[in-house]
Description:
globular, Rossmann fold, single chain, binds guanosine-5'-diphosphate
Amino acid sequence: xxxxxxxxxxxxxxxxxxxxxxxxxxxxxxxxxxxxxxxxxxxxxxxxxxxxxxxxxxxxxxxxxxxxxxxxxxxxxxxxxxxxxxxxxxxxxxxxxxxxxxxxxxxxxxxxxxxxxxxxxxxxxxxxxxxxxxxxxxxxxxxxxxxxxxxxxxxxxxxxxxxxxxxxxxxxxxxxxxxxxxxxxxxxxxxxxxxxxxxxxxxxxxxxxxxxxxxxxxxxxxxxxxxxxxxxx
Length: 233
Ligand SMILES: Nc1nc2c(ncn2[C@@H]2O[C@H](COP(=O)(O)OP(=O)(O)O)[C@@H](O)[C@H]2O)c(=O)[nH]1
Ligand SMILES: [Mg+2]
């Protein structure tokens, strides 16, 4: 029962609780996944630091794909409806999920959000569901949400070493999006290094360099989404 003397007893208890939470989360994530498969919806979970450009990339994506596909967005934040409102202005249906303090989204919240999204669609099915996770490169990587594709974003102002410092986010993702490439001249960001670091953590990671400001790399990003959608049931 000791949390302070370093005997490890307290730590062992904490790990057991965490494993229960992760197991319960995974079970609901599997339910989410079954539901998404049954409606032919691909779900994409975006993980990145606050301000890394997640919402802006979604805005550019909806501009490009919004007429071709029915897109829904679950926006994760601690507080406010700001991001959901930004998405709605682009014409996609969006539900804001506020965690009230938690640093990540859990599968039960996605389950509720998905019902709410679908309730706004009058029986029509979503082609693509984007989940913008709470801004954080640590906690969201531990929680499966039922997504088909996990994408980790790092902007060039954050530094090329982030894959090494936050390996779990890169190990559990399939795609690495480097954002704000238009700012490279003002930073010491090294794309080659960032890519090598990311591949050293996860050799099958696909890297795309984008700028939502200039549009660079957005074609490649959109192509990747279309191909991923074709692969889903
Ligand atoms: N220069 C530049 N700024 C960007 C780019 N993408 C996003 N931003 C800016 O970065 C800030 C944070 O973007 P946002 O999409 O809200 O980040 P989020 O917190 O990850 O959703 C905003 O002021 C955006 O205008 C980009 O590609 N280039
Ligand atoms: Mg955002």
